[in-house]
């Protein structure tokens, strides 16, 4: 068990990649706190996750609310005694072309996907600095590396995450805190499953492996980067995309 007795917070942990990551971390022996917006969804997810381990708790928080963020960090420490890993997985999309995008669409995506990561990391890093160890992992995207049609706000946020990852790795390395990002390609989440078959096939064709990734593929990469096996890896944006990026 590569994460035995480590405590991890996973934002956006009720569904998709966040949920798959919670399962992986529990199987690897970690204590896990999932953070999401809806209390009912959290309770449902926690109940299901107890199938894998009893070391799972949930906390309702908006990652853009600084006070609630700080309370969530304190909750994890009170439950399990430390905070070793933060996975900034929570995110939203509100797509539109530049000439049609509303200011509110821009603000909401930047607020959750960029400011939320900043607030969670700032609060977590303060605790990790005290214990002189920690791992921070951010959810980027391949679109943050090469852009995407109709996603100015999302691409800006993910590009910003890549930059913050490299900056934080420089700032926090002296405290034995590693900071990395994962840039997934097309992943078979519930949202993708609902798309027309033609669109899904197009996604497959863009991959050198001619397939779409599974949430478990991203979860496995998070588990590696969170573990001692990656002790000398920091400041990296790891593409997990089936060869989608050049």
Describe this structure in words.
- It comes from Thalassobacillus devorans.
- Residues 6-185 form the Ketoreductase domain.
- This is 3-oxoacyl-[acyl-carrier-protein] reductase FabG.
- Belongs to the short-chain dehydrogenases/reductases (SDR) family.
- Pfam families: adh_short_C2.
- With 246 residues, the protein is of the alpha/beta class.
- It has a seven-stranded parallel β-sheet, with helices on both faces.
- It is 48% helix and 15% strand.
- The protein has a single domain (7-187, 214-240), classed as NAD(P)-binding Rossmann-like Domain (Rossmann fold), CATH 3.40.50.720.
CATH architecture: 3-Layer(aba) Sandwich
Shape: globular
Number of β-strand runs: 7
How many separate structural domains? 1
Query: Whole-number average pLDDT?
Result: 96
Strand share of the residues?
15-25%
Q: What ranges have pLDDT less than 50 throughout 5 or more consecutive residues?
A: none
Rg from alpha-carbon coordinates = 17 Å
Instruction: Please summarize the sheet with the most strands.
Output: 7 strands, parallel
Q: What would CATH call the homologous superfamily?
A: NAD(P)-binding Rossmann-like Domain
What key phrases describe this protein's structure?
seven-stranded parallel β-sheet, 15% strand, alpha/beta, Rossmann fold, 246 residues
């Amino acid at each position: 068990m590569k994460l035995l007795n480590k405590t991890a917070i996973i934002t956006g942990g009720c569904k998709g990649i966040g949920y798959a990551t919670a399962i992986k971390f529990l199987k690897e022996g970690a204590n896990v706190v999932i953070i999401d917006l809806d209390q009912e969804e959290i309770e449902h997810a926690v109940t299901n996750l107890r199938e894998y381990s009893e070391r799972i708790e949930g906390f309702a928080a908006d990652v853009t609310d600084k006070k609630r963020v700080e309370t969530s960090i304190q909750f994890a420490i009170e439950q399990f005694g430390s905070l070793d890993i933060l996975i900034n997985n929570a995110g939203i999309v509100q797509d539109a072309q530049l000439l049609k995008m509303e200011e509110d669409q821009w603000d909401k995506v930047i607020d959750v996907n960029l400011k939320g990561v900043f607030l969670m990391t700032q609060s977590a890093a303060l605790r990790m600095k005290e214990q002189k160890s920690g791992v921070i992992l951010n959810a980027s995207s391949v679109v943050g590396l090469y852009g995407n049609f109709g996603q100015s706000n999302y691409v800006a946020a993910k590009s910003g995450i890549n930059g913050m990852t490299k900056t934080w790795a420089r700032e926090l390395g002296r405290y034995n805190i590693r900071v990395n990002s994962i840039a997934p390609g097309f992943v078979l989440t519930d949202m993708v499953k609902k798309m027309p078959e033609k669109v899904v096939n197009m996604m497959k064709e863009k991959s050198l492996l001619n397939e779409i990734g599974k949430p478990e593929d991203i979860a496995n990469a998070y588990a590696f980067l969170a573990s001692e096996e990656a002790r000398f890896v920091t400041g990296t944006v790891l593409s997990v995309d089936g060869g989608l990026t050049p």
